[in-house]
Specification:
It is globular and about 50 Å long. It folds into two domains: 171 residues, Isopropylmalate Dehydrogenase; 146 residues, 3-Layer(aba) Sandwich (Isopropylmalate Dehydrogenase), CATH 3.40.718.10. It is 41% helix and 20% strand. With 323 residues, the protein is of the alpha/beta class. The structure holds 1,4-dihydronicotinamide adenine dinucleotide and magnesium ion. Magnesium ion binds next to helix 8.
Length: 323
Amino acid sequence: MFKITTIPGDGIGQEVMKPTLEILETTNANFDFIPQEAGKECYKKYGTNLPQETINSCKESDSTLFGAVTSIPQQKSAIVTLRKELNLYINQRPIKSYTNPEINFTIIRENSEGLYSHMEEDNGEETIAIRKITHKASERICDYAFRYAEKIGKKTVTAAHKANVLPITDGVFKTAFYKIANQYPNIIPNDYYIDAMAMYLITKPSQFDVIVTTNLFGDILSDEGGGLLGSLGLIPSANIGNDNGLFEPVHGSAPDIAGKNKANPIAMILSSCLMLEFLNMEKEAQNIQNTIEEIIREGKIKTPDMGGTQNTQEMCDEIIKKL
Ligand code: NAI
Ligand code: MG
């Protein structure tokens, strides 16, 4: 029996969590789902966007499934705080097109520091955000990227940074990258400035296997990955630490389409597949992924972001029917 904390959150987070749990129920796995709250609606009820009870539940569970939350200026980001509380220092985001073989790479994003260190202040005259980059976290994430590339049989790992303008902080990241690269002689290391990388992702995506980068750059490149595939509603992610995992779609709460049954549930469902893999249920994960791949290739059932007219539930029903 796996204990899974589920945090649907706000907006379409709620709408994509429901079908995902329905699909997980069709597997042979034995899950105990523990629903918890976080986000803007939670803040309205309890005065906090991330209750201690939610954090404790995640810590006590085998994994967490997270939908999306709407940010509020009064509170620190719930998801960034959760990543920190659970020490989930790796953020893995596969960008794979099922219709264009040129696009198949994974972004490995440093998840614990950078500009997401919650160190921001207003001293009356200046507003300052601190971007913290350490040798330890940089080497740890680069090592994971090379190990991951080796594990899935990929040839290259590319680092993205801005060491020309940030020679100290991104200097540390770049140095860490090539230091770790030495330990993986079978993998070809390469690096680009983040701005050039943003262009190459569009002009020559096939050259990328695994991309490793700092926190904010990874966040931005992931949504660019969404653009490459045509929708953010297709991109899953895994937040991984030493003893825990949290799985969430790359997208947010999408207030523009919330409550309309229009959200694409695929990003959330594929995130649950990453959870199944994390829990050593590769076969179940593969089965669901193959089904989604078949539906995308067929192109008959498409939510509006994919250019179709089907709704969230119809996509879910099709997946369950095919499973
Ligand atoms: P967003 O990711 O929610 O939406 C961006 C665009 O993509 C919108 O046009 C939306 O309709 C579309 N989209 C996103 N997911 C989709 C799906 N599954 N199916 C179809 N279309 C989809 O980003 P936005 O609008 O910048 O932020 C909205 C709120 O979400 C903000 O409060 C933001 O802070 C929060 N957010 C939360 C995240 C999290 O909880 N991890 C991540 C990103 C944003
Ligand atoms: Mg993002």
